[in-house]
Amino acid sequence: MTEENQESNYDEQFVVDRATSSWSDLWKKDDYWSIWLGFLMLIFGLVVFFNNPPEDMDSKIKQANEVLKTESNRAPFKTVSWYQALDAKSKLKATNSSIGKTIKKITATPHRWDTNPVKAFLMDDETGEAKRKSALAKYEKAKGKEDKTLAEARIAEAAAAAKRFKSDKLINKAIDAIDMWRVAHSKVSNMKKKVSAAKPYNQIFYLLALMIFLALFFGIGMAAMGKSMPRFMLGFSFVFLIALLSYAASAQTTMKHYGIGYAAWAILFGLIISNTVGTPKWVMKAVQTEYYIKTGLVLLGAEILFGKILSIGIPGIFVAWIVTPIVLVSTYIFGQKVIKIPSKTLNITISADMSVCGVSAAIATASACRAKKEELTLAVGLSLVFTSIMMIVMPAVIKAIGIPYILGGAWMGGTIDATGAVAAAGAFLSDRALYVAATIKMIQNVLIGVIAFFVALYWCARVECLPGQKVSAIEIWHRFPKFVIGFIAASIIFSLLYEGLGKDVGYALIDHGAIRGMSKIFRGWFFCLAFASIGLATNFSELKGYFKGGKPFILYVCGQSFNLILTLLVAYIMFYKVFPEITAKI
């Protein structure tokens, strides 16, 4: 046999072995199990909430839409009746059904507390009643102010109507009065939620039930992958406890105010254990970072609805899809050519983490380039630190400088890493800033799969390609993180469902049903388990080599600085120079 024929046979056998491996991967790899489990939960959510729609949903939607149409034709601004009709539609949520409330009760994270951590899990009747009375007093005070501003808004609107909406002065006065009422109305809504929440509770039993359910949920996949399910479940109880304590710490009033969320606490608690007494071997059976977070990312895909993305139009797409790749590539080149970071995998993981959407992008990119777990931990750690700082500093800077809130929302949406932090920062400014910031971050999240594919392609073609070796499609496929397929599929399926049902029904059954009532809740728990696992599996001695010269820190700071400047510039051009008519409608 000639050397060429022998080499050809080796190649053919390689392809056969890879194909055989691909079939067994379907039930032996966590990439695929994250898809199966993610879709199992999404399907369950659809079945539950589609069979429990809000009462008289269709007739109430029809009635509200008729009012909206009439008021839009009657006045050149959004009237009191227009907003009241919108509020009526917004109350139609499948999550308000009895089964929706039950799911929320079972999966609820620890409650807010001040000085006594026991209050995160348990509140007696006496304390609950005292808290309810206090919340009710604040609610009644806020309600009185809302009633007053509503009356003033009606008077101002009537004055503008009396002049047939021909007086710009009266129109502006009516708009200002209605805006004042909406601010007061928002405060009343928040107070009403606090009154509802201020009641006795004992969450311990529900948390125990949730732990057992999640242990079985993930344990099925572990057993299929050839691991011991009982040993996994035993270790899982410890990982769940760390996640639970992390949620409790983030619920403390001061921590909540400063935006120090569960992710930072989970990693911190895990690091303390792993770097002091050490993570016990029986716990390591359940330290499955990628398994948890990949399943969570499949659920995240369902939250990315194309209809919402398109609602903000081309300006948002430009900010997210043009700036992000430029920043990612520039940061990577800067890290290699200027800072000279020794590890290319660390460089690209930090670059993706900082430029795309934080932890989610870091996980996908690390899988595509096969970065070390220590490199992923370092990238995630940097992201969490800067996210906590930016979500507090950026809204303050925007207010101090006087940047328009829509522009500020677009700026934060394109630069702050975590989706939750983006929403919190946007809420500091206004509802419109929150909408713009959250939508742009949602658009940016779409890039997770795209970035993962191109990183896998680049690593196969340039970074790890031997001289004379051709790029193998099979190798790209095996390097590509498969859970991204589930992420993309979930996004497409839920987007089609949302559009097929229509915006109003989709809002009630998809957005405030299967997503907020199921996938979003569990995604939070899955991410928290993943962060706890990162901490438990990481030792500072393994990380110290990567901090040499402070290069990762310098890379993140320089890359984020470039990101801040470019995002603000492009957002201003797109929203205020090229497409001002779209901005006016937001």
Q: How many separate helices?
A: 29
Number of strand elements: 2
- The overall average pLDDT, rounded, is 87
Distance between the termini: 71 Å
Shape: globular
Low-confidence stretches: 1-20
Question: Percent of residues in helical segments?
Answer: over 70%
- Biggest sheet details: 2 strands, antiparallel
The computed structural class is mainly alpha
Which oligomeric state applies? Answer: single chain
Spatial order of strands in the largest sheet: 1-2
- Percent of residues in β-strands: under 5%
Radius of gyration: 26 Å
Number of domains: 2
Structural features, described:
With 586 residues, this protein is mostly helical. The chain folds into 2 domains: 19-52 and 203-585, no CATH class; 57-94 and 124-201, no CATH class. The chain is 81% helix and 1% strand. The protein has helices spanning 3-28, 30-50, 57-74, 80-90, 98-107, 125-162, 168-197, 204-224, 229-250, 253-257, 262-274, 281-284, 289-303, 306-311, 313-321, 323-339, 344-357, 359-369, 373-401, 405-415, 419-429, 431-445, 447-463, 473-479, 483-501, 503-536, 540-543, 551-578, 580-585; strands at residues 122-123, 201-202. The radius of gyration is 26 Å and the shape is globular. The model is unreliable at 1-20 (pLDDT under 50).
Brief descriptors of the model:
disordered N terminus; 29 helices; 586 residues; mainly alpha; 2 domains; two-stranded antiparallel sheet
